[in-house]
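User: Hey, quick favor. My workstation is busy. Could you predict this chain's structure for me?
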Amino acid sequence: MDRAREWIGVGRCERAADELERAFGLENGPVSWVIALCWHLEGRPARSHDLPRRVILGWDKKSPKKQNRLLWELAYPRPYLELVTATAEKTGVDSALLYAVMREESAFEPKVESYAQAIGLLQLLESTGASEAKSTYGWTIDRADLQNPAINIPVGAAFLAHIAAKTSAHPTLMAAAYNAGRGALAGWLKKRKREALYRFVEHIPYDQTRNYSKRVTNSLLVYRVLYGDGEVEMLDAVGLDETRK
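Assistant: No problem, here it is.
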Protein backbone atom coordinates (compact mmCIF):
# COMPACT_ATOMS: atom_id res chain seq x y z
CA MET A 1 0.00 0.00 0.00
CA ASP A 2 2.86 2.38 0.79
CA ARG A 3 4.44 1.73 -2.60
CA ALA A 4 1.10 2.34 -4.29
CA ARG A 5 0.77 5.68 -2.51
CA GLU A 6 4.25 6.66 -3.67
CA TRP A 7 3.45 5.79 -7.29
CA ILE A 8 0.20 7.78 -7.12
CA GLY A 9 2.13 10.69 -5.61
CA VAL A 10 4.39 10.90 -8.66
CA GLY A 11 1.55 10.44 -11.14
CA ARG A 12 2.27 6.80 -11.95
CA CYS A 13 -1.21 5.42 -11.36
CA GLU A 14 -0.65 2.41 -13.62
CA ARG A 15 2.21 1.23 -11.41
CA ALA A 16 0.07 1.85 -8.33
CA ALA A 17 -2.70 -0.31 -9.79
CA ASP A 18 -0.21 -3.10 -10.47
CA GLU A 19 1.12 -2.93 -6.90
CA LEU A 20 -2.36 -3.09 -5.41
CA GLU A 21 -3.49 -5.92 -7.68
CA ARG A 22 -0.47 -8.04 -6.76
CA ALA A 23 -0.93 -7.39 -3.04
CA PHE A 24 -4.71 -7.64 -2.69
CA GLY A 25 -6.13 -9.18 -5.87
CA LEU A 26 -9.12 -7.73 -7.69
CA GLU A 27 -11.92 -8.73 -5.34
CA ASN A 28 -10.97 -6.73 -2.26
CA GLY A 29 -13.87 -4.25 -2.04
CA PRO A 30 -12.44 -0.77 -1.34
CA VAL A 31 -9.01 -1.63 -2.79
CA SER A 32 -10.65 -2.73 -6.04
CA TRP A 33 -12.22 0.71 -6.34
CA VAL A 34 -8.82 2.34 -5.86
CA ILE A 35 -7.41 0.10 -8.61
CA ALA A 36 -10.29 1.09 -10.90
CA LEU A 37 -9.68 4.76 -10.14
CA CYS A 38 -5.97 4.37 -10.91
CA TRP A 39 -6.73 2.90 -14.31
CA HIS A 40 -9.27 5.66 -14.92
CA LEU A 41 -6.69 8.34 -14.13
CA GLU A 42 -4.31 6.63 -16.56
CA GLY A 43 -6.88 6.97 -19.33
CA ARG A 44 -7.48 3.22 -19.55
CA PRO A 45 -11.30 2.95 -19.55
CA ALA A 46 -11.29 -0.64 -20.78
CA ARG A 47 -9.60 -1.68 -17.55
CA SER A 48 -11.10 0.86 -15.15
CA HIS A 49 -14.73 0.12 -16.01
CA ASP A 50 -14.23 -3.63 -16.15
CA LEU A 51 -13.85 -3.99 -12.37
CA PRO A 52 -17.24 -2.52 -11.42
CA ARG A 53 -18.77 -4.19 -14.43
CA ARG A 54 -17.58 -7.73 -13.79
CA VAL A 55 -15.88 -8.01 -10.40
CA ILE A 56 -17.14 -5.53 -7.79
CA LEU A 57 -20.69 -6.30 -6.65
CA GLY A 58 -23.50 -4.28 -5.11
CA TRP A 59 -22.50 -0.74 -6.03
CA ASP A 60 -25.28 -0.46 -8.64
CA LYS A 61 -27.90 -0.83 -5.91
CA LYS A 62 -26.98 2.65 -4.69
CA SER A 63 -28.26 5.86 -6.24
CA PRO A 64 -25.65 7.65 -8.41
CA LYS A 65 -25.67 10.74 -6.21
CA LYS A 66 -23.13 12.47 -4.01
CA GLN A 67 -20.56 10.01 -2.66
CA ASN A 68 -21.76 7.22 -4.98
CA ARG A 69 -21.49 9.19 -8.20
CA LEU A 70 -17.80 8.42 -8.75
CA LEU A 71 -18.53 4.70 -8.58
CA TRP A 72 -21.05 5.02 -11.40
CA GLU A 73 -18.74 7.25 -13.45
CA LEU A 74 -15.99 4.64 -13.23
CA ALA A 75 -18.42 1.99 -14.48
CA TYR A 76 -19.77 4.27 -17.23
CA PRO A 77 -16.82 6.38 -18.39
CA ARG A 78 -16.70 8.89 -21.24
CA PRO A 79 -13.36 8.47 -23.02
CA TYR A 80 -12.58 10.54 -26.14
CA LEU A 81 -15.10 13.09 -24.83
CA GLU A 82 -14.13 15.95 -27.14
CA LEU A 83 -14.25 13.70 -30.21
CA VAL A 84 -17.55 12.09 -29.21
CA THR A 85 -19.15 15.47 -28.46
CA ALA A 86 -18.08 16.94 -31.80
CA THR A 87 -19.22 13.81 -33.65
CA ALA A 88 -22.60 13.85 -31.93
CA GLU A 89 -23.14 17.48 -32.92
CA LYS A 90 -22.16 16.79 -36.52
CA THR A 91 -24.17 13.60 -37.05
CA GLY A 92 -27.13 14.26 -34.75
CA VAL A 93 -26.56 10.97 -32.91
CA ASP A 94 -26.95 11.31 -29.14
CA SER A 95 -23.54 11.14 -27.44
CA ALA A 96 -25.13 8.96 -24.74
CA LEU A 97 -26.06 6.44 -27.42
CA LEU A 98 -22.56 6.51 -28.86
CA TYR A 99 -21.14 5.70 -25.44
CA ALA A 100 -23.77 3.03 -24.81
CA VAL A 101 -22.96 1.27 -28.09
CA MET A 102 -19.22 1.68 -27.48
CA ARG A 103 -19.51 0.19 -24.01
CA GLU A 104 -21.49 -2.84 -25.17
CA GLU A 105 -19.69 -3.41 -28.48
CA SER A 106 -16.02 -3.11 -27.54
CA ALA A 107 -15.86 -2.37 -23.80
CA PHE A 108 -13.73 0.64 -24.84
CA GLU A 109 -10.95 -1.42 -26.46
CA PRO A 110 -10.01 0.57 -29.60
CA LYS A 111 -8.12 -2.23 -31.33
CA VAL A 112 -10.38 -5.17 -30.53
CA GLU A 113 -11.67 -7.40 -33.35
CA SER A 114 -14.59 -9.78 -32.98
CA TYR A 115 -14.95 -13.32 -34.27
CA ALA A 116 -17.11 -11.81 -37.04
CA GLN A 117 -14.22 -9.45 -37.95
CA ALA A 118 -15.89 -6.32 -36.61
CA ILE A 119 -13.26 -3.76 -35.68
CA GLY A 120 -12.65 -1.09 -33.09
CA LEU A 121 -14.65 0.88 -30.56
CA LEU A 122 -17.96 0.71 -32.43
CA GLN A 123 -17.22 -2.70 -33.96
CA LEU A 124 -17.56 -1.94 -37.66
CA LEU A 125 -17.10 -4.43 -40.46
CA GLU A 126 -14.41 -3.29 -42.87
CA SER A 127 -16.90 -3.10 -45.77
CA THR A 128 -19.43 -1.09 -43.75
CA GLY A 129 -16.78 1.24 -42.40
CA ALA A 130 -15.24 1.87 -45.81
CA SER A 131 -18.65 2.60 -47.35
CA GLU A 132 -19.75 4.98 -44.59
CA ALA A 133 -16.40 6.76 -44.52
CA LYS A 134 -16.50 7.35 -48.26
CA SER A 135 -20.12 8.43 -48.54
CA THR A 136 -20.19 10.64 -45.43
CA TYR A 137 -16.70 12.09 -45.17
CA GLY A 138 -15.02 11.34 -48.50
CA TRP A 139 -12.40 9.23 -46.70
CA THR A 140 -10.73 6.18 -48.16
CA ILE A 141 -9.94 3.89 -45.23
CA ASP A 142 -8.77 0.35 -44.62
CA ARG A 143 -8.98 -2.20 -41.83
CA ALA A 144 -6.17 -0.67 -39.78
CA ASP A 145 -7.82 2.77 -39.88
CA LEU A 146 -10.86 1.41 -38.04
CA GLN A 147 -8.65 0.75 -35.01
CA ASN A 148 -8.12 4.51 -34.73
CA PRO A 149 -10.78 6.15 -32.51
CA ALA A 150 -10.53 9.36 -34.56
CA ILE A 151 -11.88 7.37 -37.53
CA ASN A 152 -13.94 4.66 -35.90
CA ILE A 153 -16.13 6.98 -33.84
CA PRO A 154 -17.15 9.37 -36.67
CA VAL A 155 -17.70 6.49 -39.09
CA GLY A 156 -19.72 4.49 -36.56
CA ALA A 157 -21.80 7.55 -35.77
CA ALA A 158 -22.49 8.07 -39.48
CA PHE A 159 -23.73 4.50 -39.69
CA LEU A 160 -25.98 5.05 -36.68
CA ALA A 161 -27.31 8.24 -38.28
CA HIS A 162 -28.31 6.28 -41.37
CA ILE A 163 -30.02 3.71 -39.17
CA ALA A 164 -31.82 6.52 -37.33
CA ALA A 165 -33.42 7.67 -40.57
CA LYS A 166 -35.13 4.27 -40.82
CA THR A 167 -36.23 3.99 -37.19
CA SER A 168 -37.29 7.56 -36.33
CA ALA A 169 -34.13 7.73 -34.22
CA HIS A 170 -35.57 5.49 -31.51
CA PRO A 171 -32.42 4.27 -29.72
CA THR A 172 -33.66 0.79 -28.82
CA LEU A 173 -34.62 0.12 -32.43
CA MET A 174 -31.33 1.61 -33.60
CA ALA A 175 -29.49 -0.81 -31.34
CA ALA A 176 -31.43 -3.75 -32.76
CA ALA A 177 -30.66 -2.68 -36.32
CA TYR A 178 -27.00 -2.03 -35.49
CA ASN A 179 -26.68 -5.60 -34.26
CA ALA A 180 -28.89 -7.55 -36.64
CA GLY A 181 -29.04 -5.30 -39.70
CA ARG A 182 -31.61 -2.85 -41.00
CA GLY A 183 -33.29 -5.51 -43.14
CA ALA A 184 -33.93 -7.76 -40.16
CA LEU A 185 -35.40 -4.91 -38.14
CA ALA A 186 -37.64 -3.85 -41.03
CA GLY A 187 -39.05 -7.37 -41.22
CA TRP A 188 -39.76 -7.49 -37.49
CA LEU A 189 -41.40 -4.06 -37.56
CA LYS A 190 -43.63 -5.10 -40.43
CA LYS A 191 -44.95 -8.04 -38.43
CA ARG A 192 -45.24 -6.32 -35.04
CA LYS A 193 -45.48 -2.62 -35.84
CA ARG A 194 -48.29 -1.82 -33.36
CA GLU A 195 -46.79 -3.62 -30.42
CA ALA A 196 -45.50 -1.84 -27.31
CA LEU A 197 -41.75 -1.52 -27.43
CA TYR A 198 -41.00 -3.74 -24.44
CA ARG A 199 -43.09 -6.53 -25.98
CA PHE A 200 -41.44 -6.04 -29.34
CA VAL A 201 -37.97 -6.40 -27.81
CA GLU A 202 -38.99 -9.57 -25.95
CA HIS A 203 -40.13 -11.07 -29.27
CA ILE A 204 -36.93 -10.35 -31.20
CA PRO A 205 -36.12 -13.82 -32.56
CA TYR A 206 -32.33 -13.50 -32.25
CA ASP A 207 -31.13 -14.04 -28.69
CA GLN A 208 -28.00 -11.99 -29.27
CA THR A 209 -29.93 -9.02 -30.68
CA ARG A 210 -32.61 -9.16 -28.00
CA ASN A 211 -30.07 -9.12 -25.18
CA TYR A 212 -27.86 -6.57 -26.92
CA SER A 213 -30.77 -4.16 -27.39
CA LYS A 214 -31.58 -4.38 -23.68
CA ARG A 215 -27.97 -3.78 -22.65
CA VAL A 216 -27.54 -0.78 -24.94
CA THR A 217 -30.82 0.73 -23.74
CA ASN A 218 -29.80 0.25 -20.12
CA SER A 219 -26.39 1.85 -20.71
CA LEU A 220 -28.00 4.70 -22.65
CA LEU A 221 -30.32 5.54 -19.77
CA VAL A 222 -27.46 5.45 -17.26
CA TYR A 223 -25.38 7.79 -19.42
CA ARG A 224 -28.32 10.18 -19.73
CA VAL A 225 -28.91 10.20 -15.98
CA LEU A 226 -25.23 10.64 -15.11
CA TYR A 227 -24.24 13.23 -17.68
CA GLY A 228 -27.47 14.68 -19.06
CA ASP A 229 -30.03 17.06 -17.63
CA GLY A 230 -31.65 14.42 -15.45
CA GLU A 231 -34.71 13.94 -17.68
CA VAL A 232 -34.96 10.45 -19.15
CA GLU A 233 -37.34 9.46 -21.92
CA MET A 234 -39.45 6.43 -21.03
CA LEU A 235 -38.23 4.25 -23.85
CA ASP A 236 -40.53 1.36 -22.99
CA ALA A 237 -43.73 3.37 -23.26
CA VAL A 238 -43.72 4.12 -26.99
CA GLY A 239 -45.77 2.10 -29.46
CA LEU A 240 -43.79 1.10 -32.54
CA ASP A 241 -46.41 2.57 -34.84
CA GLU A 242 -45.58 5.96 -33.31
CA THR A 243 -41.82 5.57 -33.67
CA ARG A 244 -42.19 5.21 -37.43
CA LYS A 245 -43.98 8.52 -38.02
